[in-house]
C-alpha cells in the first residue's frame, strides 16, 4: 500500500490506501488565501484572515464529505499530550480556543480531527475494528517523547483498540535530506530509542541529519503497530507544494492532517 495524491479541481491532498475512513494530508493547493499564506492555509495566527481560514477549512470538509462544524483542532506546543475528544469538543475554527495538546483521539462518529504542520511530522491513525481514529503532530520533541506510541496507548485505553489492528499513515515532513541539527537532538533520540535509532541519524561534518518519519515508525513498531504507510515527500524540497518553516523562516501558512471517525464495521 502507498500514499496517493488526490486532486479535486485546484485542491490537492494525499491519502493512505490502508486507511478506509475520510482523511488526508493537505498541500498548499486549493484554497482562497493569498500572499505567503497562499492558498490552503488552515491555521489562524500566521497573518491570514479568519475568514480565509474558515473558507479553507470548509473547502476541505466539503471535499472529504464531512460536516465542517464537526472539526476538533489542536493548539500545539511540541508536547506529548494526547486529548480524548467527543462531539462536545467541536468548538469552531480557531485552534487557539482549544486546550493545549499535540494529538487527538476519538471514537465519536462524524468528528474530524485536525493537526497542523509545516516541517514537523503528521501522523494519522485508524482502527477498523473499533472505528477509533487519531491524529498527532510530532516535532522532534514530540517524537522523542513518544507521542506516536502515546496516541496508540490512548486508543487502546479508551476505546479498546489493539495495536496490531491500527493502521497508521505518516505524512510529509522535512526529510533527512534537510533536517539538520546540532548534537543535542540525536542524543535525545538515542536516549529515547537506543542504538536501533542510529540507523536514522547521519553525521555530516559538525551537524546531524535525522529521519523523523522512520524514527516515529520505529516508535510505532515497538508499540505493536505494523500497518504503517510513509510519505516520501519532503516539505523543504517542495516549498511550492508544501509550507516549510525552515524555507520560509516562519513567513508561511500551515498544512493540515485530518481524519474523520465513522461507524465501526460489524
Q: How would you sum up this structure, described in words?
A:
- There is one protein chain.
- This protein is of the alpha+beta class and 266 residues long.
- It has one domain (3-174, 230-257): CNF1/YfiH-like putative cysteine hydrolases.
- The protein has 6 helices and 15 strands.
- The strands form 3 sheets. The chain has a 6-stranded mixed sheet with strand order 1-2-3-15-7-4, covered by helices on one side. Strands 5-6-9-8-10-14 form a 6-stranded mixed sheet.
- Helix 3 (147-159) runs parallel beside helix 5.
- The protein starts with a strand and ends in a 6-residue tail after the last strand.
Oligomeric state of the chains present here: single chain
* Rg from alpha-carbon coordinates: 17 Å
**Distance between the ends:** 24 Å
Q: What number of domains?
A: 1
The proportion of residues in beta strands is: 25-35%
Superfamily (CATH H level) name: CNF1/YfiH-like putative cysteine hydrolases
CATH class wording:
Alpha Beta
The CATH topology comes to CNF1/YfiH-like putative cysteine hydrolases
* CA-based shape: globular
Order of helices and strands: EEEHEEEEEEHHEEHEEHEHE
Q: Could you estimate the helical fraction of the residues in percent?
A: 10-25%
Largest sheet: 6 strands, mixed
Find the count of extended strands (DSSP E, 2+ residues): 15
Average pLDDT rating: 96
Task: Give the count of helical stretches.
Answer: 6
Strands side by side in the biggest sheet: 1-2-3-15-7-4
Residue windows where pLDDT falls under 50 for at least 5 positions: none
Amino acid at each position: 500500500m502507498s500514499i496517493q495524491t488526490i486532486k479535486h479541481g485546484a485542491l490537492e491532498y494525499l491519502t493512505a490506501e490502508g486507511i478506509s475512513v475520510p482523511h488526508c494530508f493537505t498541500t498548499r493547493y486549493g484554497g482562497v488565501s493569498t500572499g505567503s499564506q497562499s492558498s490552503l492555509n488552515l491555521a489562524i495566527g500566521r497573518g491570514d484572515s479568519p475568514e480565509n481560514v474558515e473558507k479553507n477549512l470548509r473547502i476541505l470538509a466539503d471535499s472529504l464529505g464531512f460536516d465542517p462544524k464537526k472539526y476538533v483542532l489542536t493548539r500545539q506546543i511540541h508536547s506529548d499530550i494526547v486529548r480524548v475528544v467527543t462531539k462536545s469538543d467541536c468548538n469552531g475554527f480557531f485552534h487557539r480556543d482549544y486546550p493545549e495538546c499535540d494529538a487527538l483521539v476519538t471514537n465519536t462518529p462524524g468528528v474530524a480531527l485536525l493537526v497542523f504542520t509545516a516541517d514537523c511530522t503528521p501522523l494519522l491513525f485508524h482502527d477498523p475494528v473499533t472505528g477509533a481514529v487519531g491524529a498527532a503532530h510530532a516535532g522532534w520533541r514530540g517524537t522523542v517523547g513518544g507521542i506516536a506510541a502515546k496516541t496508540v496507548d490512548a486508543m487502546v485505553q479508551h476505546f479498546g483498540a489493539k495495536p496490531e489492528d491500527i493502521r497508521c499513515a505518516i505524512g510529509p515532513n522535512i526529510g533527512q535530506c534537510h533536517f539538520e541539527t546540532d548534537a543535542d537532538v540525536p542524543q535525545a533520540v538515542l536516549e529515547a530509542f537506543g542504538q536501533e535509532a542510529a540507523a536514522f541519524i547521519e553525521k555530516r561534518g559538525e551537524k546531524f541529519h535525522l529521519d523523523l518519519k522512520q524514527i516515529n515508525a520505529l516508535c510505532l513498531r515497538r508499540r505493536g503497530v505494523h500497518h504503517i504507510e510513509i510519505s516520501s515527500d519532503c516539505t523543504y524540497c517542495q516549498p511550492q507544494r508544501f509550507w516549510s518553516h525552515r524555507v520560509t523562516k516562519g513567513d508561511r501558512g500551515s498544512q493540515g492532517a485530518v481524519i474523520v471517525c465513522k461507524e465501526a464495521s460489524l
